[in-house]
Amino acid sequence: MGRIQLESVSKKYGNTHAIEDVDLDIADGEFLVLLGPSGCGKSTLLRLVAGLIQPSGGRILLDGNDITAAPPRNRDLAMVFQSYALYPHLSVAKNIGFPLRSRKFSRTVIANSVAAVASTLDLSELLDRRPAELSGGQRQRVALARAMVRDPGAFLMDEPLSNLDAKLRSATRTELIELHERIGTTFLYVTHDQVEAMTMATRIALMDNGRIEQVGTPAELYDTPRSTFVAGFLGAPPMNLFDATVAEHQGELHAVAPGVNIPLGIEACSHAEHPIVVGIRPEKMHIADSRAHVDAVVTTVENLGSEELVHIRVGSNPLCIRAPRPSTARAGAPITVRINPADVHLFDRDSGRRLTWRPEDAPVRTGTPLYVA
Length: 373
Fold this sequence. Notes:
It is a single chain. This protein is of the alpha+beta class. It folds into 2 domains: 4-233, P-loop containing nucleotide triphosphate hydrolases (Rossmann fold, 3-Layer(aba) Sandwich), CATH 3.40.50; 240-372, CATH 2.40.50.140. It is 23% helix and 37% strand. The protein contains 8 helices and 22 strands. Strand 17 (307-314) and strand 18 (317-324) form a beta hairpin. Helix 2 (92-102) crosses helix 3 and helix 2 runs parallel beside helix 4 (136-148).
């Protein structure tokens, strides 16, 4: 079992909140990724779960048992560090077996457990080597094997792939996904790399300034971001965001800004103009042959092989289009862009929170059919 629950967990350093009132429920067997920019608190949160630092408030539970004050050795958790933390003077076999030796297991049990884990991670041929004789990917697997040999309730991983090159990182991602599917143990994984999060996670908890902005599947965060922060963080390139106003035009609501007039597919009703932020994914913007919803000028075109990134300027706003190659866009030329109303995301300009359409006859306190989700 490996269910991890955080209830109003906080961590303060002086008057600064590193973690503020975090609630999170990680199911047994889940692969949950803590994602966010540097300094957002994701590694601090992982260390709180591991017991390496103590919270200023709240509770941490493992399978229903309160472990908030328990020392790390008494938590059924295994940590894999960014630096791997291998003992340079010990062989691979002794590095893997170290947690069992420290718990006074017999030599036979240790040998059998090390052999089994080494076989699972394809390390059997490396057991007599020392860490200095291994590649970065092999060291990462040894660190993982040392965690696995304990048969913990959950694995805690703090950016374990950050020291690998791009090709090896991709291969190791695949290995970790397959390992999780094979052993079915809870993984709590920290990264700032959205590609790792999107490809590996069953759910993502996206953090900012010590708080969780949104928790959900990778598809949920990408397709229905709850804030401009989530929308702007996920995606490469990220979602286009620009200020606009919801206004009535010919009986329909439109998102209007200089050079922009996008129908929202919503019938107009008695409703004042509403300042908003419009969000559109680059792949949802389509170059049109004639006048469409956006009038722009091309600034640059990036050739990515199978596709192009077309950078445009609409009024004072720089936007980006992801288009199949070759496109008709040329730097310095005018361009028009067509957008499907279903692909438009609306956010409140003041709070940055997602706006959702509400029918006029539904009860709403402010009298406007737009409300914060």
